Protein backbone atom coordinates (compact mmCIF):
# COMPACT_ATOMS: atom_id res chain seq x y z
CA UNK A 1 0.00 0.00 0.00
CA UNK A 2 1.44 3.32 -1.05
CA UNK A 3 1.93 5.98 1.56
CA UNK A 4 -0.32 8.94 0.93
CA UNK A 5 1.51 11.94 -0.44
CA UNK A 6 0.25 15.09 1.20
CA UNK A 7 0.11 18.30 -0.80
CA UNK A 8 2.66 20.96 0.15
CA UNK A 9 1.68 23.64 2.61
CA UNK A 10 -0.34 26.35 0.98
CA UNK A 11 1.66 29.50 0.31
CA UNK A 12 -1.36 31.76 0.12
CA UNK A 13 -1.17 34.73 2.43
CA UNK A 14 -4.24 33.68 4.38
CA UNK A 15 -2.64 30.29 5.09
CA UNK A 16 0.61 31.97 6.18
CA UNK A 17 -1.19 33.91 8.93
CA UNK A 18 -2.85 30.75 10.24
CA UNK A 19 0.41 28.76 10.21
CA UNK A 20 2.30 31.52 12.00
CA UNK A 21 -0.20 31.80 14.82
CA UNK A 22 -0.49 28.01 15.19
CA UNK A 23 3.30 27.62 15.24
CA UNK A 24 3.65 30.35 17.85
CA UNK A 25 1.07 28.63 20.04
CA UNK A 26 2.83 25.25 19.75
CA UNK A 27 6.23 26.72 20.57
CA UNK A 28 4.83 28.55 23.58
CA UNK A 29 3.31 25.33 24.93
CA UNK A 30 6.65 23.53 24.47
CA UNK A 31 8.50 26.31 26.25
CA UNK A 32 10.59 27.12 23.18
CA UNK A 33 9.52 30.76 23.20
CA UNK A 34 8.05 33.01 25.86
CA UNK A 35 4.92 35.12 25.96
CA UNK A 36 5.62 38.79 25.35
CA UNK A 37 4.08 41.85 26.92
CA UNK A 38 1.84 43.81 24.56
CA UNK A 39 0.79 47.43 24.95
CA UNK A 40 -2.04 48.45 22.61
CA UNK A 41 -2.49 52.22 22.39
CA UNK A 42 -5.50 53.85 20.76
CA UNK A 43 -4.72 57.43 19.81
CA UNK A 44 -6.48 59.86 17.46
CA UNK A 45 -8.86 57.66 15.50
CA UNK A 46 -12.18 55.84 15.53
CA UNK A 47 -11.15 52.61 17.34
CA UNK A 48 -12.07 50.74 14.17
CA UNK A 49 -8.94 48.61 14.28
CA UNK A 50 -9.49 47.21 17.77
CA UNK A 51 -13.07 46.42 16.73
CA UNK A 52 -11.76 44.64 13.64
CA UNK A 53 -9.26 42.66 15.73
CA UNK A 54 -12.06 41.49 18.02
CA UNK A 55 -13.52 39.81 14.92
CA UNK A 56 -10.37 37.74 14.42
CA UNK A 57 -11.06 34.03 14.04
CA UNK A 58 -7.82 32.25 13.18
CA UNK A 59 -7.04 32.47 16.02
CA UNK A 60 -9.50 34.67 17.83
CA UNK A 61 -8.20 37.89 19.32
CA UNK A 62 -9.32 36.69 22.74
CA UNK A 63 -7.25 33.52 22.34
CA UNK A 64 -4.25 35.57 21.25
CA UNK A 65 -4.45 37.75 24.34
CA UNK A 66 -4.83 34.76 26.65
CA UNK A 67 -2.28 32.43 25.06
CA UNK A 68 0.28 34.34 22.99
CA UNK A 69 0.81 37.67 24.77
CA UNK A 70 0.19 39.41 28.07
CA UNK A 71 -1.91 42.48 27.30
CA UNK A 72 -0.59 45.09 29.69
CA UNK A 73 -2.60 48.04 28.45
CA UNK A 74 -5.51 48.72 26.11
CA UNK A 75 -7.67 51.84 26.17
CA UNK A 76 -10.78 49.83 25.28
CA UNK A 77 -10.25 46.37 26.76
CA UNK A 78 -8.65 46.80 30.18
CA UNK A 79 -10.72 46.94 33.35
CA UNK A 80 -8.67 49.67 35.03
CA UNK A 81 -9.55 53.28 34.33
CA UNK A 82 -8.40 56.79 35.14
CA UNK A 83 -5.04 57.26 36.83
CA UNK A 84 -4.88 53.57 37.70
CA UNK A 85 -4.86 52.69 34.00
CA UNK A 86 -2.18 55.29 33.25
CA UNK A 87 -0.03 53.96 36.09
CA UNK A 88 -0.28 50.46 34.65
CA UNK A 89 0.76 51.86 31.28
CA UNK A 90 3.86 53.54 32.67
CA UNK A 91 4.78 50.51 34.80
CA UNK A 92 5.58 48.53 31.65
CA UNK A 93 8.46 50.89 30.82
CA UNK A 94 10.80 48.84 33.01
CA UNK A 95 9.95 45.61 31.17
CA UNK A 96 10.30 44.18 27.67
CA UNK A 97 7.21 44.89 25.58
CA UNK A 98 5.82 45.14 22.07
CA UNK A 99 4.03 48.39 21.30
CA UNK A 100 1.03 48.43 18.94
CA UNK A 101 -0.49 51.81 18.11
CA UNK A 102 -3.68 52.60 16.24
CA UNK A 103 -4.71 56.13 15.43
CA UNK A 104 -2.67 59.13 14.37
CA UNK A 105 -0.68 61.32 16.76
CA UNK A 106 -2.26 64.75 17.31
CA UNK A 107 0.32 67.54 17.63
CA UNK A 108 -1.97 70.57 18.06
CA UNK A 109 -1.47 72.40 21.37
CA UNK A 110 1.33 70.04 22.35
CA UNK A 111 -0.92 67.03 21.88
CA UNK A 112 -3.92 68.24 23.88
CA UNK A 113 -6.26 67.49 20.97
CA UNK A 114 -5.92 63.81 21.91
CA UNK A 115 -5.91 63.08 25.65
CA UNK A 116 -6.01 59.37 26.51
CA UNK A 117 -6.01 59.66 30.32
CA UNK A 118 -4.48 61.43 33.28
CA UNK A 119 -1.25 60.91 35.19
CA UNK A 120 -0.24 62.66 38.42
CA UNK A 121 -3.21 64.95 38.02
CA UNK A 122 -2.17 66.09 34.55
CA UNK A 123 -3.58 65.17 31.12
CA UNK A 124 -1.78 62.25 29.47
CA UNK A 125 -1.73 62.97 25.76
CA UNK A 126 -1.41 60.48 22.95
CA UNK A 127 1.73 62.34 21.88
CA UNK A 128 3.31 61.88 25.30
CA UNK A 129 2.36 58.20 25.48
CA UNK A 130 3.56 57.41 21.96
CA UNK A 131 6.87 59.18 22.51
CA UNK A 132 7.56 57.72 25.94
CA UNK A 133 6.67 54.13 25.09
CA UNK A 134 8.02 54.29 21.55
CA UNK A 135 11.50 55.02 22.87
CA UNK A 136 11.49 51.88 25.05
CA UNK A 137 9.54 49.26 23.07
CA UNK A 138 11.40 46.29 21.62
CA UNK A 139 9.18 46.31 18.50
CA UNK A 140 6.59 48.79 17.25
CA UNK A 141 3.55 48.11 15.10
CA UNK A 142 1.56 50.92 13.49
CA UNK A 143 -1.93 49.46 13.16
CA UNK A 144 -4.30 50.91 10.58
CA UNK A 145 -4.17 53.83 8.16
CA UNK A 146 -4.13 56.61 10.75
CA UNK A 147 -1.09 55.19 12.54
CA UNK A 148 0.83 54.27 9.38
CA UNK A 149 0.44 57.52 7.44
CA UNK A 150 -2.12 59.78 9.13
CA UNK A 151 -5.22 58.39 7.45
CA UNK A 152 -8.61 59.93 8.06
CA UNK A 153 -7.39 61.68 11.22
CA UNK A 154 -4.84 63.64 9.18
CA UNK A 155 -7.14 64.26 6.21
CA UNK A 156 -7.70 67.85 5.11
CA UNK A 157 -8.15 70.24 6.83
CA UNK A 158 -6.56 68.29 9.73
CA UNK A 159 -7.56 70.60 12.62
CA UNK A 160 -5.74 68.43 15.19
CA UNK A 161 -2.49 68.57 13.18
CA UNK A 162 -2.35 64.78 13.26
CA UNK A 163 0.62 62.89 11.82
CA UNK A 164 1.70 59.30 11.45
CA UNK A 165 3.48 57.44 14.24
CA UNK A 166 6.69 57.39 12.17
CA UNK A 167 6.73 61.19 12.02
CA UNK A 168 6.92 61.26 15.81
CA UNK A 169 9.27 58.30 16.29
CA UNK A 170 11.65 59.25 13.51
CA UNK A 171 14.56 57.15 14.76
CA UNK A 172 12.64 53.90 15.25
CA UNK A 173 11.88 51.12 12.79
CA UNK A 174 8.13 50.62 12.70
CA UNK A 175 6.23 47.73 11.14
CA UNK A 176 3.34 49.33 9.29
CA UNK A 177 0.00 47.58 8.86
CA UNK A 178 -2.17 49.99 6.84
CA UNK A 179 -5.88 49.48 6.35
CA UNK A 180 -9.08 51.19 7.40
CA UNK A 181 -9.45 49.06 9.37
CA UNK A 182 -6.63 46.53 9.47
CA UNK A 183 -7.59 42.93 8.72
CA UNK A 184 -7.28 40.79 11.90
CA UNK A 185 -4.98 38.33 10.11
CA UNK A 186 -2.51 41.06 9.18
CA UNK A 187 -2.05 42.03 12.82
CA UNK A 188 -2.23 38.56 14.39
CA UNK A 189 0.05 37.04 11.75
CA UNK A 190 2.63 39.80 12.21
CA UNK A 191 2.46 39.45 15.99
CA UNK A 192 3.02 35.69 15.72
CA UNK A 193 5.99 36.30 13.39
CA UNK A 194 7.52 38.59 16.01
CA UNK A 195 7.19 35.87 18.65
CA UNK A 196 8.69 33.17 16.42
CA UNK A 197 11.29 34.86 14.24
CA UNK A 198 11.44 38.56 15.00
CA UNK A 199 10.46 41.27 12.56
CA UNK A 200 9.11 40.09 9.18
CA UNK A 201 10.52 41.09 5.82
CA UNK A 202 9.04 44.41 4.76
CA UNK A 203 8.91 46.59 1.67
CA UNK A 204 10.39 50.08 1.38
CA UNK A 205 7.38 51.50 3.25
CA UNK A 206 7.71 49.12 6.18
CA UNK A 207 4.77 46.85 5.24
CA UNK A 208 5.15 43.06 5.75
CA UNK A 209 5.57 41.48 2.33
CA UNK A 210 3.63 38.40 3.42
CA UNK A 211 0.46 40.51 3.41
CA UNK A 212 1.13 43.60 1.29
CA UNK A 213 3.17 42.40 -1.68
CA UNK A 214 0.53 41.97 -4.40
CA UNK A 215 -1.83 44.44 -6.05
CA UNK A 216 -5.52 43.77 -5.50
CA UNK A 217 -5.90 44.21 -9.27
CA UNK A 218 -3.67 41.19 -9.94
CA UNK A 219 -5.77 38.83 -7.80
CA UNK A 220 -9.21 40.30 -8.40
CA UNK A 221 -11.74 37.73 -9.63
CA UNK A 222 -13.08 40.43 -11.97
CA UNK A 223 -9.73 40.90 -13.68
CA UNK A 224 -10.88 38.96 -16.79
CA UNK A 225 -13.57 41.60 -17.33
CA UNK A 226 -10.91 44.32 -17.13
CA UNK A 227 -8.70 42.53 -19.66
CA UNK A 228 -11.65 42.27 -22.06
CA UNK A 229 -12.73 45.88 -21.52
CA UNK A 230 -16.07 45.01 -19.91
CA UNK A 231 -16.73 47.64 -17.24
CA UNK A 232 -19.53 48.24 -14.77
CA UNK A 233 -21.69 51.26 -15.50
CA UNK A 234 -23.35 51.48 -12.09
CA UNK A 235 -22.94 50.16 -8.57
CA UNK A 236 -24.25 46.62 -8.36
CA UNK A 237 -23.00 45.54 -11.79
CA UNK A 238 -21.07 42.26 -11.72
CA UNK A 239 -18.28 43.29 -14.10
CA UNK A 240 -15.04 45.26 -13.57
CA UNK A 241 -15.50 48.31 -11.33
CA UNK A 242 -12.46 50.20 -12.62
CA UNK A 243 -14.46 52.90 -14.42
CA UNK A 244 -16.40 53.54 -11.20
CA UNK A 245 -13.20 54.52 -9.41
CA UNK A 246 -11.91 51.18 -8.08
CA UNK A 247 -8.46 51.63 -6.52
CA UNK A 248 -7.47 47.98 -6.82
CA UNK A 249 -4.83 48.73 -9.49
CA UNK A 250 -2.81 50.86 -7.03
CA UNK A 251 -3.52 49.09 -3.71
CA UNK A 252 -1.38 46.29 -2.30
CA UNK A 253 -3.19 43.84 -0.01
CA UNK A 254 -4.51 40.29 -0.18
CA UNK A 255 -8.19 41.25 0.23
CA UNK A 256 -9.40 39.22 -2.81
CA UNK A 257 -8.22 35.94 -1.28
CA UNK A 258 -8.36 36.69 2.46
CA UNK A 259 -11.59 38.70 2.51
CA UNK A 260 -13.26 40.00 5.68
CA UNK A 261 -15.77 39.14 8.41
CA UNK A 262 -14.62 35.56 8.78
CA UNK A 263 -13.33 35.32 5.20
CA UNK A 264 -16.81 35.60 3.68
CA UNK A 265 -16.90 38.89 1.76
CA UNK A 266 -15.07 42.02 0.66
CA UNK A 267 -16.07 45.30 -1.04
CA UNK A 268 -15.76 44.16 -4.66
CA UNK A 269 -17.58 40.95 -3.78
CA UNK A 270 -20.39 43.21 -2.62
CA UNK A 271 -20.34 45.11 -5.94
CA UNK A 272 -18.66 48.27 -4.64
CA UNK A 273 -15.22 49.58 -5.70
CA UNK A 274 -12.11 49.22 -3.59
CA UNK A 275 -11.38 52.65 -2.06
CA UNK A 276 -7.68 51.98 -1.47
CA UNK A 277 -7.95 52.14 2.32
CA UNK A 278 -4.65 50.32 2.85
CA UNK A 279 -2.69 52.48 0.43
CA UNK A 280 -0.49 55.27 1.76
CA UNK A 281 -2.18 58.61 1.15
CA UNK A 282 -5.68 57.34 1.92
CA UNK A 283 -8.17 58.98 2.08
CA UNK A 284 -7.18 62.23 0.34
CA UNK A 285 -5.06 60.60 -2.36
CA UNK A 286 -7.76 58.01 -3.10
CA UNK A 287 -10.67 60.44 -3.41
CA UNK A 288 -13.20 60.46 -4.93
CA UNK A 289 -14.13 56.94 -3.83
CA UNK A 290 -16.85 56.66 -6.48
CA UNK A 291 -16.63 58.20 -9.94
CA UNK A 292 -18.15 57.67 -13.36
CA UNK A 293 -15.10 58.58 -15.43
CA UNK A 294 -15.36 56.39 -18.51
CA UNK A 295 -12.04 57.76 -19.81
CA UNK A 296 -10.01 56.50 -16.84
CA UNK A 297 -6.91 54.43 -17.64
CA UNK A 298 -4.47 52.53 -15.42
CA UNK A 299 -1.52 54.62 -14.32
CA UNK A 300 0.71 55.08 -11.31
CA UNK A 301 -1.57 57.08 -9.05
Automatic annotation (TrEMBL):
UniProt cofactor(s): [4Fe-4S] cluster; [3Fe-4S] cluster
Binding site for [3Fe-4S] cluster: 255, 274, 277
Coiled-coil residues: none
Record keyword Signal present: yes
Domain of life according to the entry: Bacteria
Record: residues binding [4Fe-4S] cluster 1: 46, 146, 180
Annotated keywords: 3Fe-4S, 4Fe-4S, Iron, Iron-sulfur, Metal-binding, Oxidoreductase, Signal
Recorded GO CC terms: [Ni-Fe] hydrogenase complex; cell envelope; ferredoxin hydrogenase complex; membrane
Residues covered by the NADH:ubiquinone oxidoreductase-like 20kDa subunit domain: 46-194
Sequence positions that bind [4Fe-4S] cluster 2: 217, 220, 240, 246
Alphabetized GO MF terms: 3 iron, 4 sulfur cluster binding; 4 iron, 4 sulfur cluster binding; electron transfer activity; ferredoxin hydrogenase activity; metal ion binding
Localization (cell): Cell envelope
Pfam families to which the protein is assigned, alphabetical: NiFe_hyd_SSU_C, Oxidored_q6
Any one GO biological process: anaerobic respiration
Domain Cytochrome-c3 hydrogenase C-terminal: 212-289
InterPro entries per the UniProt record, alphabetical: Cytochrome-c3_hydrogenase_C, NADH_UbQ_OxRdtase-like_20kDa, NiFe-Hase_small_C_sf, NiFe_Hase_small_N_sf, NiFe_hydrogenase_ssu
Family of this protein: Belongs to the [NiFe]/[NiFeSe] hydrogenase small subunit family.
Subunit (UniProt): Heterodimer of a large and a small subunit.
PANTHER family: HYDROGENASE-2 SMALL CHAIN, NIFE / NIFESE HYDROGENASE SMALL SUBUNIT FAMILY MEMBER
Name listed for the protein in its UniProt record: Hydrogenase small subunit
Amino acid sequence: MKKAVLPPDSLTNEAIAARLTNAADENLKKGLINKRNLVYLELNGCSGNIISLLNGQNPSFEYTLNSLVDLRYSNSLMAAEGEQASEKLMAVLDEDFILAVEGAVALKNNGLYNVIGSLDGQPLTGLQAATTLGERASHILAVGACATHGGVSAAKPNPSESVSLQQVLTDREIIKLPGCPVNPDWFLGTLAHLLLYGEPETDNLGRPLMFYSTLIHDRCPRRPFFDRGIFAEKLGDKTCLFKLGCRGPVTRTDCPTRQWNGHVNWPIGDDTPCIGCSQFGFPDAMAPFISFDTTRVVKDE
